[in-house]
Input
Amino acid sequence: MNTHIWVNQMMTRPQPWIVAQNQPVFLVHKNTLAGCVEQFAPISLSEMDAVALLDRVDQKFLITREQLINILQSVQSEYRILTIHDKALNAYRTLYFDTADYKLYKLHVNQSAERYKVRLREYMNGHESFLEVKYKTRKDRTIKDRISATGPSDCFRAEAGKWIKKFYPFDAQELEPKIWNTFTRMTLVNKENPERITIDTNLFFSTHERYVNLAGLVVVEVKTGSKFKSSPFLAEMEQRRIHPQGFSKYCVGISLLCDNVKKNEMKSKILMVEKLTRGVEIHG
Output
């Protein structure tokens, strides 16, 4: 694939858990982003229960860091920001699972009506981990189910396999770990309506052999429930002519780091990611 995103080879073959654990997560320019974040009123994890939105409609946007700062400054009076242990910028890491022939990746890039993700996600600031199954329905709804986990070993226990079978229509025994992803997330919660916005920066992907840093890219996901009314954030994006588009961290990471997968359908997305990582703004 012709791309200027620099993919690095691992000099050794460490375990993925250690690779992800040792990567720098907080790479943001604190003089701008952290200062902007401080202007938001906080919301706690317990208060977030009312807007968990496990059954929801999602809209994703790709922007640059500079765009992010400007947008946050415009909407700060309309939202609260999730704060965990006095931190609003929270570190996440995820281990994605797929079959040997990348069945779940293929479902996504082939734009199948129904798609699944199986992953282990760790909320590093809150010291919590969950095994999760995400299901994208034919009606464009996203449904997420999860159970608590302590680490990757949990995913290979019989109990985990039985649980996955409840929400996953394929053979859970075919699943194997594929790729790690770390990122820094801030979460905004609408003060009036059932809306939650996740903003991910400092994306970093790794396999046993390779890794790639997309620190300049910002991925925004606006999540709304059935009682959704209006969104100051979406209004701001429309005013700036920034339109929603499909984006999968898993598929981007796989297409960048794995050689034995189909990539033609991902070329335009990877080119856009490359531009945004370099700070080039893209408008409709």
Summary: Helices lie at 16-22, 33-37, 65-75, 103-109, 158-165, 232-239, 249-257, 267-277.
